[in-house]
Amino acid sequence: MLYTANVSLQYWGEAFSYAVHIRSLSATTGLNGVVPYEAWIGRKPDVSHLQVFGLLGWTHIPRQVCRGKLKSQAVKV
Fold this sequence. Notes:
8% strand
């Protein structure tokens, strides 16, 4: 998320928070058709604030080549 938005690595905490938010609004197999938000809160989530912003293709860079925890591990195709 940080690399596609051209954002500094100092914002990794905010990016992680947004990723967790999106994950809680996504379906999982363990909850049989219920998203985690709905299982926890008891009502369906409002997803009107989410936006589609394009589709990109990425190629994975193996860990042996790309060192560093916050370094990019993929390249745009």
